[in-house]
Structures are given as C-alpha cells and as structure tokens.
C-alpha cells in the first residue's frame, strides 16, 4: 500500500486483522490508517500514522456496509454496485466483497469482516491496477463455501508414516514430536498465507488416526484449541480427524457400534466438550473401513449409520462430519480378475444416496483410484444427487513427484472441475461441489425434492510443512495457491493463476528484468503436469511406482500385490479392461454419455485408454501413433522437456534474478527431477520393449 491513506470502517472479529494488515503494509512507507468504528457514533480512532481529518478522500476504503453511516466514498460505490447488479446486489454472504472506484479512491465493501479481509488481499493481489482510474464495480463471492486443507500430520513420529504422512516439506507445521509447536508465529503466518490464498478450513491431523492423535479429541483438545486461536484471526476454522473406534479407545466402551445408545451418548458428550473448548470448531474428518482404519462394517452397519451417528453429535453445534468415500479392499486377491478397486467407492456409497444427514459431507477423491497423474473423474460425483459432496484433491505431490519435481497441478484440477459428468452443457464437477448458488435461496433443492441445500466444497491434502520454503520445492507453493484460487473461483484459468502467483512471489518492483523472470517461470511451470505425465505412466494406466514410499519407477512394483493397482501388461498388450462387455463393468457406473464413450474402444479418449481398455501394443491411437510408439515418444520427449526446464532456470540464476538460497534449492531439485525422469524413461521404455519386442520406429537406443 506504500504511502496510501486507508480508511477502515467497521468493528468486530476480523476487522482487527484487517487493521493490522493495513498498518503493516503501510508501515515504513508513510502509509496512514484511520479506523472508524460505528459505535459510539463519534468513535473515530487513528490506529497508525496521522490522517488529516479534513482531507475527505482516502486512497483505499474498506467498509462494512452493514454499519451506517457509511463513508461518502463507500456510499458512491454502493450506489454504482446496485445500479450494475440490480436485484442481484444482495447478499454478499459471509466472505464476499465488492470492489469499486470512486474519485481517487478504491473501495471494498463487505457484509462481514471476513469479506473485508478477502477484499484487502484481493487489492494486494491486483497491486497498482487496483488503483487504476477506471475500474468498473465488481462483486466477488467464493463459489465454494468450504475451502479446506487436510493435514496428514501426526503429533508423534510413526515408524510407518513419519511425522507427516506423504509430507515432502519437513516436519509438521502444527506439531513437533509429541507436542504442539512452540512457535506460534509460524502457525499465525500460515493462517495469513491460507487466507491470502482463499482457504478457510484446516484439519490438523492425519486421517489415519494413531493412539496419540486420537487423544486430540478428548484430553488433548486444548492443543487443538491453541491452533484454532492462532488461525481464527484469518477466518480459518479447525477440524479434527477422529477414529471411528474412539468410544472404545478413548471412552473405554466395549463397542463403537453406531446404533448403540451408549456409543451415541459418548459421541454427544465428547462433542459437547469439544465445542465448550472451541466454540467455532468445524467438525470431524473420518476415514473408516479403509486401509486398516476401524469403521461401521465391524458391526454390520452401513456407512450412512456410521456417518449419521457422528453427525447427530455435531448437529446441535452446527458442525459437520467429512466422511471419506475412499473405502476399498486393500487385501484383494490379485489373481482374481473380477475385482476392481476403481469400482469400490461407487459400490459402497451410491446405494446410500439420500440416507445421510444434512450435516454429513461425503468427501470423494476426484478420481476412482488414488490421485494418479491421470484418472477419469470419479463416477461417485454423478451418483449421489441427494448427498452433500466434497471433492478431494491432493496438493501434496505423493504421486506427482513428491515436491522434488516441478509439477504444477492447476490444469489438472481445472480439468476435473470443468468435467460435465452428464455430458457437455450440464452441471460440472465444480457445480456439484459448490451446491446450489447463494442466489438460488435453495430453489434448486426445492425443485429436486431431497437435493441438499448446500454443497460440500473443495478439500485437498496440504503440501505444507515446517520447511523454510513452506513446501520443500519452492515452486510447489504454486499448487497451494492454485488450490485456494480454484476453490474460490473454479472458472479461473490456471495459467492466469500461475502468473498471479509468480508476480506475488517473485516479481518485486526492484527486480532487474521482471519480464524475463515472469516469462521464464511461466515456461518452466505452465505445462509441467503434462511433462510429468509424459515421462511416467502412460495413457491413464497409473501407479508403476516403488511400493511404500511411491517415489520413482517400479513398473511391476504393485502388479502382484493385494492393493488392486494393476496394469496387466503381458507380451501381447497392456491396460485394464473395465468395460461392461468383457471387463470389470466399471464403465457402467457412469451416466451417459460417458458410460458409452468409455466403453467404446473407438471413442475413449487417448489419455485414458489404458484405464478402460486392455489393448495390443500395436493399437492405433486417435493421435495416429501406436500405443507402444506413444510410450517411447512421450518418454523421450518428457526427459527433453525437463532438460529444457533446467536450462531455463539456469538463465534466471545466471542473471541473478532469484534469491541465492532459493536458487540453490530449486537447482538441486531440478537436477533430481532430470535424474528421475531419465530413470522413468529408461525403465518404462525398456520394460515395454522387452515385453512387446517392438523396436522404436525412430531407431533410438532402448536397452
Ligand atoms: C493414499 C496414501 C495414503 C493415505 C490414503 C488416504 O498413499 O498414505 O492414507 O491415500 O487418502 O494416497 O487415506
């Protein structure tokens, strides 16, 4: 904000945060802030610097429009807003804001303090252009009410998962071996970072709940309250992953049967105590009957019974339960070709549609398997119109290079969000997750009978740890940012989000050659998801990673295991037959037109071919290439692209355009990415050459 003069009009809650932020942004630059509280009527108070009371106009006005009388500049923008939006001018909701210009000033209007804070961050994002002369009035509201990050953080360090399960950015930001972190500034800074990205909810512990972590729900709830206190000023609510067996493990009961009265009373009492300690607590996250976690199946109960029992305990306090749909048998017989892990979530949950309480949110991974570099959209998203659904992404790069590889995931998520499960022109994944628009006033649900009145939102597994760069690979921060931005506005262009992030992160006005910096970073990152796909698993087949830690290639690593993750490559062909005609029948879980599109060898999109079909190596793709030649070509090309990325970065280093510490970190990671990409290329190409016996049409050397 430099030396600008700001007026903050309003009081309560996050308005203090807004004031602090504004004062900080102007400090040392001659910036001035006036705080105008609505009550008492004459209660004007200068918070930082001096403002000439007679000077009338401010450069920036941040005003709660619910607190009259509004400052003149705000009144003018309010009028323009009403004129432009007419009957749609209300409501802005808890988090929305209006941005406009009047005279020499920029004005943010909101109906609640969080809206002012998001408005301020938006002004910061726009930089100088927020203060440009002609800027038509705009309304901003988040598409998703819930924009949540799940931390797979353990309080203790566990032999199987370390401190952060699938964490690639050091230790936990919340916990240090056995205890809460003793560094509140870092957690506070994280809250600020999240609000600046648009995230408003955080689950503070791993979905795989070990014994120490289970206790966060009861005798260690104070530790959670301490985190909530640090995040609250930034509008971020906390959630807790809980064990379905908590009534036994913590409560000493003999059962966790969700229909048992004693069990329900235990959940009710425990939850009441949680809310006594944390009145704005968000709710529970539950992974049940999955990968060894306890669940309702042990009592012959359904997942609706299980979820509803916890939801009932949360309902009096306005809490929700995020019940994960990631339920499958991880002990299946790999010789049994009739089983298919991709089918599991739909088979378990689709029949339960309509049976969940209103405050249950079914949290569905975006693909039917497990965050692979390429998967179709999960058919569950189209199968449960009477259930609140949240869509889950993985910002932590478990299967996309573990924050050692540059892999910007914005384009992948945008593709998922844009997908129309009922065909082009119909509702999209984003609209299902968002639920009925605020404007509808619930009319969609009235029309649909039992349709939910709210969406479940967007959730992602966090990629943040205590690493000095937050995310291990400094460029992986872009994924955190893109997640928050897409959850707020799913229609945003991921390329534009990337540019925003580059500008905010790397391009201070003092940079010697901002254009070179901007362009080069964009070139390195924009298509890096496709690059990663090219040198790893081809055409939607997935996995082929080293078992356990999931980094680097191991073509047959999971092929004869119980996890249900197969490619079925043999000397004649590759791919998983998931058709109704001759395979597992998974294509039948999709509505039309996708059910027929995926079923058809001719119509199935190339990039998903091996997810749905088992084909000979000589099968001709729409691209004109054979499957085997596509594998060779993409793997050679992917490695070349990584080499190019590295050369591009060297240009930036040579020009001295990036901080030396950050430069060293990125260089080390790019070296590793190149090494790893070559390893992928060589193992995948050699494997398929040996299996198929088909030489490379372009005569390149394959061992
Ligand atoms: C898989 C991870 C595993 C998680 C699981 C989950 O490998 O560590 O516990 O997802 O989502 O991708 O529960």
From TrEMBL:
Q: Which UniProt keywords apply?
A: Carbohydrate metabolism, Glycosidase, Hydrolase, Polysaccharide degradation, Xylan degradation
Please verify whether the record's keywords include Cytoplasm.
Answer: no
Question: Pfam families of this UniProt entry?
Answer: Glyco_hydro_67C, Glyco_hydro_67M
Q: Which residues form the Glycosyl hydrolase family 67 C-terminal domain?
A: 471-700
Give every Glycosyl hydrolase family 67 catalytic domain span.
139-470
The protein's matches in PANTHER family, at most eight in alphabetical order, are given as:
ALPHA-GLUCURONIDASE A (PTHR39207:SF1)
The family note in this entry says: Belongs to the glycosyl hydrolase 67 family.
The name this protein goes by in its record: Alpha-glucuronidase
Natural source organism: Plantactinospora solaniradicis
